[in-house]
């Protein structure tokens, strides 16, 4: 059976970790097509991995199996899970990394991966990507019924800040992604702007308590409407409220990282 399996990890490209996972998959399903989304996620950065998955999963053919291994809790009591959605499967640790994408597509069921029949015979306490997630993905690509993996999960871990709290004039969220240019994506979506009461040209107060950031920016349509070096807010191509600097890096200037809490107030 020819199926697509994607891999998204923080393993880098210079080690044996990724080829080991591919070898396990191909040993079980030689016809699998394995696509690398990226292995350059910063180490342990679950937020960046979750957003990267969300931004890319939907462009793959229906039935694709997405495997994510950004797993700082490997070997602890954290669960390994497989998620069936309307159009895809997601396999990885139960640390929130899968949920933004899975909920976006519509969850059908979630199963804890406990059945040793679908793992490698010896499971390392530090490399579940090879010994648990890769074989499970391969078996799913061969048509395995997800219910055979283990008990149903009804309380998956979700990342704080992916779902924002938005009211008239104020929003509380988190930095969910920082891109190559240093633009900081908040968890506030374009559809929530009416609730917030935000319009182009408005001034915003942006507070990031952990970084001692307290500044005012304008909400503009794109970078070029701001002066060079000026901080601004805009709606980006993925539909999120983004904090940016025209021809500069917001993340570098203010030292922000994924997961940082952010408070947005509209100044009228």
From TrEMBL:
Domain spans labelled S-adenosyl-l-methionine hydroxide adenosyltransferase C-terminal: 174-263
Residues annotated as domain S-adenosyl-l-methionine hydroxide adenosyltransferase N-terminal: 5-149
Output the InterPro entries linked to this UniProt entry. Answer: SAM_HAT_C (IPR046470), SAM_HAT_N (IPR046469), SAM_OH_AdoTrfase (IPR002747), SAM_OH_AdoTrfase_C_sf (IPR023227), SAM_OH_AdoTrfase_N_sf (IPR023228)
Which keywords accompany this UniProt record?
S-adenosyl-L-methionine
Q: Which family does it belong to?
A: Belongs to the SAM hydrolase / SAM-dependent halogenase family.
* Protein name, per record: Uncharacterized protein
Q: State the organism of origin.
A: Vulcanisaeta distributa (strain DSM 14429 / JCM 11212 / NBRC 100878 / IC-017)
């Amino acid at each position: 059976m020819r199926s697509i399996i994607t891999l998204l990890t923080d393993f880098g490209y210079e080690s044996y970790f990724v080829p080991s996972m591919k070898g396990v998959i191909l040993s079980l399903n030689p016809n699998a097509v394995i696509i690398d989304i990226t292995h350059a996620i910063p180490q342990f950065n679950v937020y960046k991995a979750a957003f990267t998955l969300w931004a890319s999963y939907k462009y793959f053919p229906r039935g694709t199996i997405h495997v994510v291994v950004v797993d700082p809790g490997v070997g602890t009591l954290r669960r390994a899970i497989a998620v069936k959605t309307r159009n895809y499967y997601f396999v990885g640790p139960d640390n929130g990394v899968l949920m933004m994408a899975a909920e976006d597509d519509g969850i059908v069921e979630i199963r804890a991966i406990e059945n040793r029949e679908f793992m490698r015979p010896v499971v390392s306490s530090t490399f579940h990507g090879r010994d648990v997630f890769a074989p499970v993905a391969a078996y799913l690509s061969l048509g395995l019924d997800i219910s055979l993996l283990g008990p149903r999960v009804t309380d998956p871990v979700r990342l704080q800040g992916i779902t924002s709290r938005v009211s008239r004039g104020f929003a509380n969220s988190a930095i969910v992604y920082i891109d190559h240019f240093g633009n900081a994506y908040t968890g506030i979506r374009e559809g929530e702007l009416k609730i917030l009461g935000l319009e182009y040209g408005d001034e915003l107060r942006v507070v990031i308590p952990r970084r001692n950031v307290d500044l005012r920016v304008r909400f503009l349509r794109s970078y070029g409407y701001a002066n060079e070096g000026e901080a601004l807010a805009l709606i980006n191509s993925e539909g999120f409220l983004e904090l940016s600097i025209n021809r500069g890096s917001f993340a570098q200037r203010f030292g922000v990282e994924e997961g940082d809490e952010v408070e947005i107030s509209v100044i009228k």
